[in-house]
Design goal:
The chain is built from twelve helices and 26 strands. It is α+β, with helices and mostly antiparallel strands. The chain folds into four domains: 96 residues, OB fold (Dihydrolipoamide Acetyltransferase, E2P) (Beta Barrel), CATH 2.40.50.100; 123 residues, RNA polymerase II/Efflux pump adaptor protein, barrel-sandwich hybrid domain (OB fold (Dihydrolipoamide Acetyltransferase, E2P), Beta Barrel); 52 residues, Irregular (Dihydrolipoamide Transferase), CATH 4.10.320; 214 residues, Chloramphenicol acetyltransferase-like domain (Chloramphenicol Acetyltransferase, 2-Layer Sandwich). The protein has a six-stranded mixed sheet. Strands 1-8-6-3 form a four-stranded antiparallel sheet, with no helix packed on it. The protein has a four-stranded antiparallel sheet with strand order 5-4-2-7, with no helix packed on it. Strand 21 and strand 22 form a beta hairpin. It starts with a strand and ends in a 7-residue tail after the last helix. Its cofactor is (R)-lipoate. Its EC number is 2.3.1.12.
């Protein structure tokens, strides 16, 4: 049966999108996970993948054209299938009835079965990244009964890539919460209902549940949600209440050892933000009265005692990020024919050059920054390594956007340095530091993780001598960087003490042949062993 694909909401503020490029044409076979098109949002140009398999039967928005979110983008079905009814429905005044797989962020989905009272808006779980299929509510910043203004932050939502603030596009009273804090729900599930105070919305919530858009327990728990959220005080200094703070503020407070219950928030509803923590001066008098709750929130989890000889298992729920990492790495490993090339690089000159560079005031360059710079310059000389595989063509990227793998609590993210070859070492160092900080605080935006053409993964700081990585598709290669080791080496026929580093290039054999990968590594070694050539 044919499926209608609508213009997705690829960012929290996106209202319309422009089709930059179609990667499939009418008549092409589409597999689940194939990239259908590149869509330009209000923030970035992002790849949009298909969640359906079949044949592309119709394209509703041509390249260069813009259309509102939820407009008819394409139709996928069986070869030769009659789609005239879908096309006529899409041209009708209420096209949303034909797009059941995608619910609008307001009230269109339930119109077919429930009459929506005037002024009531249904808010659904947004798609905050191009790969997001589920979202977890990390924090509600509003509770049932609160007044909501257009632009207010409703909640912080954890996607497969980051924790992002979700703002309201509607004004009114928060009448219903469909997904409690810590719960996960699919994109387009009912998240909340906003409308005039006192409006009965129980029928709307129940209908969404009946249609399978949200899990049944959530509708039954609506009264409990209301009780739970109204009990949480907005005063951040209440010793017995929950503390409202942004994830970044919490992280900074934890790093500095600051008791958040002592901090007065300047954000909405007294919410603590970054500036409040950075400008906080501890008061000794308040420490005795409010330190106990902070200790309970920041203390490490104590593992249960397990007597010797007894089995014990612990189940940890997979985060959205962990699920996406598992899916994408499995796809890469089992679709791209990986092979590996390893070389040893003499790092003595690089160590001397770094020491000199870092004597400049306010300058801090790491060995990883030097590797990233060397990779960028080597990729300009060997653009085939900077490529992507498609079934119909090989894409050679003549711009260099290097992704730098960063380990975070839930897994691994890859922020991207755009036009890395045009950046100096100090610019690379500052950019990597900034993006790594955002990654650890879950503040990376989708735009900051899109568009890489090559990836660097460095485990040298953990003492790992060498390792191999799985290619970060759609890239064709990834460089694994090991630790710098001091050991005996042969120089000019003499055994001397030298510093070496092992790097391994994982390549997709569909795009990068062995000789091409080897030539890239030779160029990379020349830059690292003679760092002055990177400054020319």
């Amino acid at each position: 049966m044919a499926v209608v694909i609508t213009m997705p909401r690829l960012s929290d503020t996106m209202t319309e999108g422009v089709v930059a490029t179609w990667l499939k044409k009418v008549g092409d076979t589409v597999k689940e996970g194939d990239i259908l098109a590149e869509i330009e949002t209000d923030k970035a140009t992002m790849e949009f993948e298909s969640f359906n398999a079949g044949t592309l039967l119709h394209i509703g928005i041509q390249e260069g054209e813009s259309a509102p979110v939820d407009s008819l983008l394409a139709i996928i079905g069986a070869p030769g299938e009659d789609i005239s009814a879908l096309l006529s429905g899409a041209n009708a005044s209420a096209p949303k009835a034909e797009t059941a797989p995608v619910a609008e962020a307001t009230t269109e989905a339930p119109k077919a079965t429930v009459e929506i009272p005037t002024g009531v808006k249904v808010v659904t779980m947004p798609r905050l990244s191009d790969t997001m299929t589920d979202g977890t509510v990390a924090t509600w910043l509003k509770k049932v009964g609160d007044t909501v203004k257009e632009g207010d932050i409703l909640a912080e939502i954890e996607t497969d890539k980051a924790t992002m603030e979700f703002e309201s596009f509607n004004a009114g009273t928060l009448l219903y919460i469909g997904v409690s804090e810590g719960q996960t729900a699919p994109v387009d599930s009912i998240l909340a209902i906003i409308g005039p105070a006192g409006t009965d919305v129980s029928g709307i919530a129940a209908n969404f549940t009946a249609n399978g858009s949200v899990e049944a327990p959530k509708a039954a728990a609506s009264v409990e949600v209301k009780t739970e959220t109204t009990a949480a005080p907005v005063q951040t200094t209440n010793a017995g209440g929950r503390i409202f703070a942004s994830p970044l503020a919490k992280k900074i407070a934890q790093d500095k050892g600051i008791d958040l219950s002592q901090v007065k928030g300047s954000g909405e509803n007294g919410r603590i933000v970054k500036g409040d923590v950075e400008g906080f001066t501890p008061q000794a008098a308040a420490t005795q009265t409010v330190s106990a709750p902070a200790a309970t929130t920041t203390a490490p989890v104590v593992k249960p005692f397990v007597p010797a000889g007894e089995k014990f298992q612990e189940e940890i729920k997979n985060s959205q990020m962990r699920k996406t990492i598992a899916r994408r790495l499995a796809e890469s490993k089992f679709t791209a024919p990986h092979y590996y090339l390893t070389i040893e690089v003499a790092m003595d000159e690089a160590m001397k050059s770094r020491a000199v560079i870092n004597t400049v005031p306010d300058t801090k360059v790491s060995f990883n920054d030097m590797v990233v710079k060397a990779c960028a310059m080597a990729l300009k000389k060997h653009p085939q390594v900077n490529s992507q595989w498609r079934e119909d063509a090989m894409i050679i990227n003549h711009h260099v956007n290097i992704g730098v793998a960063v380990a975070v609590e839930d897994g691994l993210v890859v922020p991207v340095l755009n036009f890395t070859d045009q950046m100096s070492l100090t610019q690379i160092g500052a950019a990597v530091k900034d993006l790594a900080g955002k990654a650890k605080n879950k503040k990376l935006t989708p735009a900051e993780m899109e568009g890489s053409t090559f990836t660097v993964s460095n485990l040298g700081m953990f003492g790992i001598q060498s390792f191999t990585s799985i290619i970060n598709q759609p890239n064709s290669a990834i460089l694994s960087v090991g630790a710098i080791e001091e050991k005996p080496v042969v120089r000019n026929g003499q055994i001397v003490v030298g510093n070496t580093m092992t790097v391994t290039l994982a390549c997709d054999h569909r795009t990068v042949d062995g000789a091409t990968g080897a030539q890239f590594l030779q160029t990379l070694r020349q830059y690292l062993e003679n760092p002055v050539t990177m400054l020319a």
